[in-house]
Design brief:
Elements lengths: L3 H10 L10 H7 L3 H12 L7 E11 L2 E13 L2 E6 L30 E6 L5 E4 L6 E4 L6 E5 L3 H15 L15 H6 L9 E4 L5 E4 L2 H14 L11 E13 L6 E12 L2 E7 L19 E8 L3 E6 L8 E5 L5 H12 L2
Length: about 350
Amino acid sequence: YPSEFLMQKITEDNQIPVHLHVSVSLQYVAGLKGRALVEFFHSNIAEVENEELRHLTWSSVLFYKTPNVEVMACVLLSTKAIYFLLDDSFIHADEHQSDFWNKENSDCENSSFHLSCCFVLKLNDLQSVNVGLFDQYFRITGHSADHIVTCLTRDSYNTHTFIQQLMAVLSLLARTPSPEPVDKDFYSEFGSKNTGKMENYELIHSSRVKFIYPNEEEIGDLAFLVAEKMDGLTNLPSLNILLYVLAFQVNHSEGSAQNTSSLQAKTLILTSSDLFLFDEDYISYPLPEFAKEPPKRDKYQLADGRRIRDLDRVLMGYQTYPQALTFVFDDVQNQDLMQNLTLDHFGE
């Protein structure tokens, strides 16, 4: 251990997304290759001697206790646990939530020693994994509020790869088998579903960890919510959600010594007639079993919405992934004017 193929794969995956800022300590980790990376894992991170590193990915993460702080992490999956290697600045996240992203750690500037904190979630404590819409993110749930983490991969391939690797590792766990299911009669089978809502698709792994996938009704609920935000101008049956993607909105702050741009996480939803930006709560829904009250904010909060017919042009950058897009809209004073003319003259 480990095989050449595994070391090559982990080395290829050990790349920080170019659009996100990380501390010097994590940059050091990203510079490790092959055997040096495996040795670093065993000497600095691994908790027991005989565990094997199986997968590595870089992702933004959110914790249930600090839902407004998105932090970059190196996520390491071994045969015993999932390790989240975090920026040292995350320790102060509660005090500096607003300037968390741009905080420079001056204490470490002239020091050759850099600290990272590591959050550990043992596989034996894992209870469920919720996969987000279109595999844009996934939430790992343990036995308490301290053990709920969302990985915002913003990439369906990375999500799929991690889930596959996690299932493979969970298959190695020796857990006591579940008790035999009790035969249910007709009434208990069909009478208990009084919520009026279809349950999400659940896959119960042999390790008894639940993998929960969204069903079609989530898209229906989202379409209904979007239609509400459009003030009922659109016929709901004809409203199709064409695209759902987790993105960043770029805010340029000019006038400073150097023009800086901050990234704000947004959910972009494209329908057949409108373009929306939502602030989405990726960590609180669906509610964990131990939650005593609903979260303070709704899952989706509208941040901006524009009609496609007002779109003037789309500017595309020439850099590689992630691609920057600028949407330029016409500034129409009376937005309802065009809508009413269309309804009167071209349709019922």
